[in-house]
Amino acid sequence: MGQTHDLEKRIAEHNGEDAGHTKKEQPWMLVWKQCVSTRSEAMILERQIKKRGAKRFLEDIGKKKPG
What we know:
- With 67 residues, this protein is mainly alpha-helical.
- The protein has one domain (7-60).
- Helix content is 45%, strand content 0%.
- The protein has helices at 7-15, 39-52, 54-60.
- Helix 2 (39-52) packs across helix 3.
- The two termini are 17 Å apart.
């Protein structure tokens, strides 16, 4: 979960050898995306998702987390 202008590059970074703290969760897979107009909107949405929890947020909007 996060914000970026280049989604494919960001996923590649998460799945790369230098991934750091995200390495243990590899491979990362896109399950949902939302385009917003401003960075401020993106930050508000990200806070909402983190507060609710990604799995419950996806269930609430009718998406299923794979696995």
